[in-house]
Task: structure prediction
Amino acid sequence: MGGKIATLAAARARDGDARFAGLTAVALLAASPPAPEPMEEDRRKLMLDWFADGAIDADEAAQFVDDNTAARLPEPLRERAIADVRCSGRKAWTGWLERGSREDWQEAAGQIAVPALILAGGEDGDLGEDAQRRLNLPHYPAGRISVIEGAAHLLPYEQPDAVAQAIADHVSAAFARALPPAMIALLASDRVSSRTRAVLTARHAVPGPLTLLSDRQAATLAALIEAVLPGAGDPGELARRIDAMMAAGRGDGWRCAELPADAMCWPAALDTLDAMGGGFADADPAARERCLRSLAAGKAAETGGALSPHQMQLWFAEARGEIARQWMALPATMARIGYDGFAIGGDGVRKQGYVRAAADTIEPWQQLAGTRA
Result:
């Protein structure tokens, strides 16, 4: 039950729901999917019968625990698990089995770009690794499956240390790229519309795999980004964002007439740059600098590549602008430089805008700690 609810909550974060602004990671444990949960009808009926008289008894709760663990739990842990099952309310238990588990929320869930850890018990029958790959993982392009051996469905009871370590590792990596708390608070405020919040959430999401550039071209682009914007973050991630932009045909609406369309130009330019630099991605910073300075001056050597030195000069000017544009559009960059211009009008009819417009003045809402440089 919890897995389906968690995924739908993550989908609300993606769609701009202020209550979930700043969602950084998802961890699913033997999770029910947005689709109807796989379950044998005889077992469904048996579990419904346990609450026929209003409450589940100790023997029935023990059967549930034993049926959902790879091996009998040691005492007193087993007794604690049985007691937890007996705390279940009749309405919640029967509501899930009769309705919630059968509901199909796949369309509402869609795809969610937040990093997701999906844990599956190695001996879980209905919701093991295969079911998680088929039913939950497709909703999380940045998700991964981890199998907990020696466990079935009640993972925290069966393998608590392994589960805790897996979650800790996942959260640690995800939170390394989390937005600052003050930026999240501003995103969640009524000064930001749901649509704007959804757009910024999508921009902050982990970019998908390469779709247009080759691995070598992407490595060359990452090296170029590192030279143009040193210390600006993960150049490989920014390279994948530019790859996605080109693959989708979403540019800035302008290109030089002497250059081919972006989807053709960038791969060709990166190949040419790689040849000019004698392996640009592998060159040291000084060699990259010399190569780019000659490129910018229109003095690069002819390589016989798809683009001439003059075209490469034009492309490099455009590439610098695109790299900067992509970086500046990221919420993490906005937080870093203290930009809050997106927070000037929420979903209401009245848009708050600015009250103070004089130079060197800021308004109280702009003074959230950490949102300004």
About this structure: The chain has a mean pLDDT of 93. The beta strands are 26-29, 116-121, 143-148. The chain has two domains: 2-175, 179-373.
